[in-house]
């Protein structure tokens, strides 16, 4: 099932991470290579720039000059460095598993056979045409829209994004039980604006997308004329869906996107697109209610389904089936997919090596099996203990900040403190691993493995209906270089993959760790109190616990932060969307403020010495800046400002720091400096 991402991650793209271990016989992380590099590398600086003029450039200018974006990437930064440093380790794990001849159903068998099937390019090139024909034949055989609905459900089970999203997650107003959600979707391009905006850049992308669709149909056996006609049909249906879709800013309102309806009400709204029949076909007959994210969109789906000829709907479903399978089929399909999604949209020049693409599929499909093999070697217990201690300090600091707020009433503070105390924390890897019993992974059919993992997850979700919510579940795999806050579970989660330099370094001084991992922890804590997260209570339920006047004061401060970021120009004529990025900007600002306070607590009773000529306070801010060191292609930045709730890296550094008096004091910034904001202009929320 394609699900709404209602957890808030540190970065949009979660990349695989792993350990520093180089040899299979070692039981702990071999950190020699990483430890050899200083926590703060002075050669990465650009000292021709004042820290009060452009702090991002001051800290990272030397690194940016030395690290152009590789041909296989659309951006390059700290996240990528960790990812690359660990890819070879995950490759060793997968290759060893592939050679192990492990018992069926074991982690080694799931990982090893999945990886081996993806690396067997000769079999894929030979068998893929059969896979393609089978996918299309299933759709072609539908003789009515009722039969086509069944094929739509089957495609959903395979991972297709056609028409709309259907998934099972905790009920946002009753977080102890699961609910069926219906959400807008059905687009082949990343956002509705690609279909609707009339600027030259979007027009070029639209033409490239049509060319991509044409190529998919040609590769599946259509002649050029028929393929072009099919592409136009698909684009027409998707444009109609785009016109009915809410903007990404509108999707940030959890109240407006929560509309619980009975099956009868949904059936009436979506007729003749029968949700009741779709749920029955999906195996969700026990569902009595459905939470509809966007009723107007569902109504538009019903209209499109009713007025579009059967053959055109088939063409649309075929396009999504082809697009869904293209990355896993023979090289012409995979290359066509790369050309549009990676090269046209993000500027990537070359496709990644096959083993990296296959490894990403393994992580997506059986990530906790891979994760178990990973943490056995790569995650020492002392790392978890140190992070737990940092979280304790961060929560204490947050408590002090909430108590000292001069804009919030005591009644709202009481609820906020209650929520803070209820935060759950997950570090490294799950306490209870996902059970893959029943998942069939074979060695000689990569596409079948991909489909099987999608269908296994789809069915796993459906079976949860009527069951208590599993509070142990993770939504990132252990090797992931990222972190997240999950509102319905009121939890902060830090996979093992991110607990390494430059985010966390057990050998570094407190200032570096609090400016890196500490601010990351503060970031995730702050998501519980950003413009979206603040609307969920201590139990994870969507409930208004704010006094009205406090909510208004919060909104005033949030709007000021939105206006600040909306003024930042990423490229000529391309600005940050302060409303879209508001939650992440609040989390960055709050996270830094809280982490700074926690650092002061950690430094109590210790010698406050300079290292590399910098005070602890200066090293704290430098550490934050080096976490976000990034080079990015123009194409990537254009897409980022359109679809990513995170601001570009430069502004994640300079934006929040310009609001912090502690930063100005640490570096002696004064009025007239570009980084300096007058006290009355500074935004302070948490």
From TrEMBL:
Claim: Ligase is one of the keywords in the record: no
The enzyme's E.C. designation: 3.4.24.-
GO molecular function: metal ion binding; metalloendopeptidase activity
Enzyme class: hydrolase
One GO BP: protein processing
UniProt similarity note: Belongs to the peptidase M13 family.
Name recorded for this polypeptide: Putative endopeptidase
Organism, as annotated: Thermonema lapsum
